[in-house]
């Protein structure tokens, strides 16, 4: 308390993470414009752990078909995660100057399969179990943005992942996947405050139903199906732990 320099030191990290969120939300808007859909103003959900859990954007018009929903839902995580991975790679490639790096335990990289694999590729033998490593702050800022995109891609409620699941397989399958996802989040909430936060958020703000489409029978074209499934797989790579030893 009373150290007014600390907030200013957080500005670069906030800007880096906000850049990732901005790319995510802007992609939703561009995709919506291409389909003629109307979106509400996105509002960001605060988080004590990450700063923000991303934005909630309502679809305020009826969509023509499931493919339109898939385009809008998949655009945000694809572009947002792409920007986050790019910044993460830059951060891993940078060598921290004296007094500028952040010292963390190598065990932290077990928290994400994707980040752990990339860290091992870039750090090589210096990343060992129990060791401490210095990384550029951009690594943690980009990782934060990547995690926000990954969590938003979980196939639950009206999250991007939930909308993707409904667009890919229809409402009946979405309702089942949604139930399983919330149940798994509820179980993981016993061990993670972030999961608990998301269960509460989905139940009160994002539980659905998903915006109706005028025609919900026809399936999306294959390129959009690939994009949607890629987002769901990317969410797993981000959120699942890295199971291998760094030895």
Automatic annotation (TrEMBL):
Residue spans crossing the bilayer: 41-60, 72-94, 180-204, 224-244
Entry GO terms, CC: chloroplast membrane
Residue ranges annotated for the Peptidase M50 domain, each copy included: 14-172
Domain of life of the source: Eukaryota
Any GO molecular function: metallopeptidase activity
Classification via InterPro entries: EGY1-like, Peptidase_M50
One Pfam short name: Peptidase_M50
Keyword set, alphabetical order: Chloroplast, Hydrolase, Membrane, Metalloprotease, Plastid, Protease, Transit peptide, Transmembrane, Transmembrane helix
Subcellular location: Plastid, Chloroplast membrane
Entry keyword Transit peptide: yes
Membrane topology according to the record: Multi-pass membrane protein
One GO-annotated biological process of the protein: proteolysis
UniProt-listed PANTHER family: ZINC METALLOPROTEASE EGY1 (PTHR31412), ZINC METALLOPROTEASE EGY2, CHLOROPLASTIC-RELATED (PTHR31412:SF5)
Similarity field: Belongs to the peptidase M50B family.
Name of the protein this chain belongs to: Peptidase M50 domain-containing protein
Native organism: Ceratopteris richardii (Triangle waterfern)
Record lineage: Eukaryota, Viridiplantae, Streptophyta, Embryophyta, Tracheophyta
């Amino acid at each position: 308390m009373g150290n007014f320099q600390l907030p200013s030191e957080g500005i670069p990290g906030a800007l880096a993470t906000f850049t990732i969120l901005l790319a995510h939300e802007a992609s939703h808007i561009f995709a919506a414009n291409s389909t003629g859909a109307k979106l509400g103003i996105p509002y960001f959900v605060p988080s004590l752990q990450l700063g923000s859990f991303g934005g909630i954007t309502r679809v305020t018009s009826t969509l023509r078909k499931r493919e339109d929903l898939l385009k809008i839902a998949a655009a945000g995580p694809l572009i947002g995660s792409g920007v986050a991975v790019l910044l993460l790679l830059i951060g891993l490639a940078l060598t921290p100057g004296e007094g500028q790096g952040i010292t963390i335990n190598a065990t932290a990289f077990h928290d994400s399969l994707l980040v752990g694999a990339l860290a091992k590729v870039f750090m090589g033998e210096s990343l060992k179990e129990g060791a401490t490593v210095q990384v550029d702050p951009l690594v943690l800022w980009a990782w934060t943005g990547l995690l926000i995109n990954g969590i938003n891609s979980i196939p639950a409620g009206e999250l991007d992942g939930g909308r993707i699941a409904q667009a890919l397989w229809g409402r009946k399958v979405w309702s089942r996947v949604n139930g399983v996802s919330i149940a798994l989040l509820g179980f993981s909430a016993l061990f993670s405050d972030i999961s608990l936060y998301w269960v509460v958020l989905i139940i009160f703000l994002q539980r659905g139903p998903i915006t109706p489409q005028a025609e919900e029978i026809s399936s999306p074209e294959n390129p959009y199906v690939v994009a949607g499934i890629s987002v769901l797989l990317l969410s797993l790579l981000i959120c699942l732990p890295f199971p291998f030893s760094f030895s």
